[in-house]
Specification:
Elements lengths: L1 H9 L1 H4 L5 E2 L2 E2 H23 L3
Antiparallel strand pairs: 1-2
């Protein structure tokens, strides 16, 4: 469950750039979109690995 936290806050100082532009969007927007899409996957993997 540390992965979403690292994606959003830990990497933010490193990805807070206007350039490069990915698909016409600043890199920060693309990074936050990717982090948002990866968060449910990380939660699912955590739940799957923690079955009792």
């Amino acid at each position: 469950m540390l992965v979403p936290h690292l994606l959003y806050l830990g990497a933010l100082p490193f990805v807070n750039r206007v350039h490069p532009v990915v698909l016409g969007l600043p890199f920060l927007f693309v990074w936050l979109l990717g982090a948002t899409l990866l968060t449910p996957v990380a939660v699912w993997l955590t739940r799957r690995g923690d079955r009792r």
